[in-house]
Amino acid sequence: MEAKIDDLDRLLEVQKYDLELYNLKKQLTELPQPKVIANARTKRTELQKKADQIGALKKDATKRLLRVRDEDESLIKKERGVQAAIDAAGGDYRNIEARSKELAGIAKRRNTLSENRAEIEAELAKISALEAQVSNAIQSVERIEAQTVEEYRREGGAIQQKAIDLERQRDLLFTSIDGSLVEKYRKIAERLKGIAIGELQENRCGVCRSAIEGGRLIDLRNQAPLGVCPSCSRLLIIR
Fold first, then answer.
1. What is the pLDDT of residue 93?
2. Nearest 10 degrees: CA dihedral of 160, 161, 163, 167?
3. 71: Cβ–Cβ under 8 A, 6 or more apart, which residues?
4. 138-153 b/e with 16+ CB inside 10 Å = b?
């Protein structure tokens, strides 16, 4: 296969860039931060659902407490009115007796409301404690996420910038190589997802290490300075 030795040497240099780029991409995919960030976001979503549930419980308990307070305030006013009626009844014992029973009923209801209020306030105290706990957990997860995102931007950004610089150098080198040879190299590199060119070392492919014997080796040497490995189909430099 016709080719200039200088072009083939440059392709070997290109391949070094490609291998380093491959390693950089691997480093980027193996960085631990994306997994940590994903886990943090999943955890935050779970915690937020819990926070929403707690918020709904708190809202319900607060409404119940307000109803108890409103009813108690209403009973206080009613209690004052009944007491005033008793005080104004004078010697009307029947009226006083009826009002006293009403007053006792009010007092009994207020005792029940007081118990209800204490229970709801205790419930709200537990809910508030749980709410604070979940809120702290969300803040902690958000701090971890923010810190990890910053680490990933820093470390991943450095890797990406290095890759951009290498691609620029590789592409510049491509411009000094025969276009048809570059096209062959690119197609093989894409197909094999790796090394596209090697050198014939005695009777073996320098990449796949397969032995090339007999007539195949003779035919390959006749293609110098460039042939194709009959085993792995990579370009082979024959010196």
1. 87
2. 130
3. 113
4. beebeebbeebbeebe
What are the pLDDT digits (tens) for 20-75?
999 999 999 999 999 999 999 999 999 999 999 999 999 999 999 999 999 999 99
Integer angstrom CA distances of residue 206 from 15, 95, 203: 14, 116, 9
The distance from CA 191 to its chain's CA centroid, rounded to whole angstroms, is 32
Say which residues have a Cβ less than 8 Å from residue 12's Cβ, sequence separation at least 6: 197, 199, 237
The model's pTM is 0.74
Dihedral of CA 53/57/58/62: which sign? positive
Q: Give the neighbor-by-neighbor strand order of the sheet with 197-201.
A: 204-205, 197-201, 235-237, 226-228
Query: What is the distance between the alpha carbons of residues 75 and 104, in angstroms, rounded to a whole number?
Result: 12
Q: How far apart are CA 77 and CA 61, in angstroms?
A: 25
Residue 95: the pLDDT is: 92
**pLDDT at site 51:** 98
- Can you list the positions of beta strands (E) in the chain? 197-201, 204-205, 226-228, 235-237
Letter string b/e over residues 59-88, b meaning 16 or more CB atoms within 10 A of that residue's CB = eebeebbeebeebbeebeeebeebeebbee
What tokens does 91 get? Answer: 């010697």
Task: Kindly state the DSSP code that residue 194 receives in the 8-state scheme.
Answer: S
Cα angle 33, 34, 36 (rounded to 5 degrees) comes to 60
Look at residue 119 in the predicted model and tell me its pLDDT: 98
Q: State in Å, rounded, how far the first CA of the chain is from the last one.
A: 12
